[in-house]
Design a protein that fits this description.
This protein is mainly α. About 50% of the residues lie in helices and about 0% in strands. The chain is elongated, with a radius of gyration of 21 Å.
């Protein structure tokens, strides 16, 4: 027999504000990195037979994958100090 449990979190107002702040920061970071991937695709795509032989090809940028974007987090924490602040623990 399998048993499952459901729990309901009841954060205080201060904790709910902190959770909303963290979720909005994560949402904006996710959207920024997703836009970076879409921009890379738009700049580097080329349909077959669409480019003539005599054309200027821009410098190709590496494909932004999970690991390359993960490496940008330390720089993000330096430029945006609110990502470094610690969580509030209300007892």
């Amino acid at each position: 027999m399998r048993t499952s449990y459901q729990y309901r979190l009841r954060p205080t107002k201060l904790q709910a504000i902190e959770i909303d702040r963290w979720l909005s920061m994560m949402c904006s970071q996710y959207n920024y990195l997703l836009a970076d991937r879409f921009n890379w695709y738009e700049q580097n795509r080329s349909p077959i037979n669409a480019c003539p032989l005599v054309c200027h090809l821009p410098q190709m940028r590496d494909n932004p994958d999970y690991y390359s974007q993960k490496k940008t987090l330390p720089q993000l924490k330096k430029t945006h100090p609110w990502y470094v602040t610690t969580c509030l623990y209300v007892r």
